Amino acid sequence: MNLLLLSNSTNYGEPYMQWCSSTITSFVKDHSSIIFIPYAGVGFTYDEYTQKVNYALSSFDVKVSNLDNFDDKAKALKDSSAIFVGGGNTFHLLKMLQQFDLLETIQKVVANGKPYVGWSAGSNIASPTIRTTNDMPIVEPKSFQSLSLVPFQINPHYTEKSIPNHGGESRLQRLREFLAANPHQKVIALPESSYLVCNGNQLIYNGRFDGKVITSSGIKAINDQSNVIF
Prior knowledge:
Blueprint: E1 2-6, H1 21-27, E2 34-37, H2 46-57, E3 64-66, H3 73-79, E4 82-85, H4 90-99, H5 103-111, E5 116-119, H6 121-124, E6 153-155, H7 171-181, E7 187-189, E8 194-199, E9 202-207, E10 211-215, E11 218-222, E12 226-227
């Protein structure tokens, strides 16, 4: 598989996709028929979301097409040269992919080598389930089973910061709760400005800050350019 799974699209104080646009465009160099899946977007139209992505990538001469504008969405995915899946609300993204019966189509074309680029919700959905998303369940999918493009869970936007004087659980506590209930699972936590590149059976972590491999038995830090064994 050829996967680029980014934690986030935008860093604080920066334009949309500034930190990752060159990484994304290098990954899909020479691909001229890219389909964008905008269904994580809520509160704005799918065309607006697609335009936003195209504007961010315009200086690299990369253009994406909005999947929602195709009548035969499965055919559009099959005919594409690469697939982008944007961030937003993971529950809404999964529900829409289930509604259009697209999960199996995406799994098959990606398994056959079609490049897949996801950020935030688009990365989380590459996991076996969406149970390590940070999002509110604003809609109810049929199930939490997602694409299973990788055999581990992803937690995008990972942070160990806490709000002063706030008694709620930290992100790490939440993930430990997940692992207490699912002790045989593994979570790769991606802080901002980090991503995973999967090429076949090789998984490389890239990031400004260390990522984490979190299991029920402990936590292992992964640094920039680390080969992650999964």
